[in-house]
Amino acid sequence: MLASYLTMAAILFCIGLYGAFVKRNAVVVLLSIELMLNSVNLNLVAFSKYGAVPSLTGQVFALFTIAVAAAEAAVGVAVLIALFRARGTVKADEFDELRR
Amino acid sequence: MNGFTFNFDGGYAAFFVFAVLIIAGSVLMISTSKVVHMVMSMAAVFLGVGGMYILLDAEFLAFVQVLIYAGAISILMIFGIMMTNHRDAAAEAVKPLKETLAAVGALALFGLLFYAIRDADFTGMDGGRMVPEEDNTAAIGVLLFHNQVLPFEIVSVLLTVAFIGAVVLAKKEAE
């Protein structure tokens, strides 16, 4: 059963990776990053039940990841709102000052 | 002995249902054109992951997942979409080369991961050895406030700093 969960998490991670590469709307890029973080959490919890040393520590680690992901999402959306106010767009490929 | 052992029972059926929910939601998230629909399908993905946590005997984490992800983060993203422009989302200029490269990269990564998972030796790791606690929440609380006090406090400081920073960033500039 462990391998099924790991494969599930791998599928989720790769879909999130594809979304983060392809999507132009920066809010959707943030969502894709959340998808990848979720797949990591799924791995942690799966190993906390089926791993070589099963214990609750994996779940606690996943809790910390969720807290950090929440902070990341809040700051990300705030940055996007500030960027939108300054530039009038949230297209990720139009923020290219550093490239010029 | 790779870990793909399927004895068909209720847990496996539930896993299958949640897996279909997660994959359908995430593929819909990639393929739909309206941003609000993307957030809605993401909420389905988050609920599916929460269901998987229940299957893995992590009830407290499932509850947190539904509260934080399906509740708070989805709403936060919807607010983010509403406060930025969401009307021209349909007019996505396609960049075939970039999309192909991204698809190839993601598929290659998945192939690598799948190969590694298939090849790994999971014998003797088929669960059941962790006796699920009577009260998952109480056990996590004890662990959190005994062994992990320092990380817990650091995370609380981090959250405070991040949210104050978010308020300052999103606040309108005073003229």
UniProtKB/TrEMBL annotation, chain A:
It catalyses: a quinone + NADH + 5 H(+)(in) = a quinol + NAD(+) + 4 H(+)(out). GO terms for biological process: ATP synthesis coupled electron transport. It comes from the Bacteria. It is a multi-pass membrane protein. Keywords: Cell membrane, Membrane, NAD, Quinone, Translocase, Transmembrane, Transmembrane helix, Transport. It is found in: Cell membrane; Membrane. Its EC number is 7.1.1.-. GO terms for molecular function: NADH dehydrogenase (quinone) (non-electrogenic) activity; quinone binding. GO terms for cellular component: NADH dehydrogenase complex; plasma membrane. The chain crosses the membrane at residues 6-22, 29-48, 60-84. Its main location: membrane. NDH-1 shuttles electrons from NADH, via FMN and iron-sulfur (Fe-S) centers, to quinones in the respiratory chain. The immediate electron acceptor for the enzyme in this species is believed to be a menaquinone. Couples the redox reaction to proton translocation (for every two electrons transferred, four hydrogen ions are translocated across the cytoplasmic membrane), and thus conserves the redox energy in a proton gradient. Belongs to the complex I subunit 4L family. NDH-1 is composed of 14 different subunits. Subunits NuoA, H, J, K, L, M, N constitute the membrane sector of the complex. This is NADH-quinone oxidoreductase subunit K. The lineage of its organism: Bacteria, Bacillati, Bacillota, Bacilli, Bacillales.
From TrEMBL, chain B:
It catalyses: a quinone + NADH + 5 H(+)(in) = a quinol + NAD(+) + 4 H(+)(out). It is found in: Cell membrane. It holds the Pfam family Oxidored_q3. GO terms for molecular function: NADH dehydrogenase (ubiquinone) activity; quinone binding. The chain crosses the membrane at residues 12-30, 35-54, 60-79, 100-117, 149-170. InterPro entries: NADH_UbQ/plastoQ_OxRdtase_su6, Nuo/plastoQ_OxRdtase_6_NuoJ. Its main location: membrane. Keywords: Cell membrane, Membrane, NAD, Quinone, Transmembrane, Transmembrane helix, Ubiquinone. It is a multi-pass membrane protein. Gene3D superfamilies: NADH-ubiquinone/plastoquinone oxidoreductase chain 6, subunit NuoJ. Its EC number is 7.1.1.-. The keyword Membrane applies. GO terms for cellular component: plasma membrane. The keyword Nucleotide-binding does not apply. NDH-1 shuttles electrons from NADH, via FMN and iron-sulfur (Fe-S) centers, to quinones in the respiratory chain. Couples the redox reaction to proton translocation (for every two electrons transferred, four hydrogen ions are translocated across the cytoplasmic membrane), and thus conserves the redox energy in a proton gradient. Belongs to the complex I subunit 6 family. This is NADH-quinone oxidoreductase subunit J. It comes from Paenibacillus cellulosilyticus.
